[in-house]
Amino acid sequence: MIITDIALDQSNRTVSLSFDNGSSAELSCEYLRVHSPSAEVRGHGPGQEVLQTGKEMVNIVAIEPVGNYAVRLVFSDGHDTGLYAWNFLIELAENKDSNWQEYLARLETAGHQRKA
Which domains does the chain have, with CATH numbers? Predict the structure, then answer.
């Protein structure tokens, strides 16, 4: 699967991905922010991940191409260090439901409640 288009809808705080097979996926800015590939989120090795909280209202202010292999997402909270490779975005789209449920479970375990 190949991404053929990426579109930001700031009013809904979502990014839409279109694929070469005609399918599409919609990812929230919060989802993309809390699953950033950056060291700030992922850490520098297994077990060093940092749970991101308070990102319910985060938006993306810019999508910047990086060569032919990735985009840099610039978030309204100032985060801009993760490079979202096309394959990583596809993986996030394919695993959206399970990733999101895992994130919500981690928040609950940490005693954090998402704001409505």
Answer: 3-109 (3.30.2020.30)
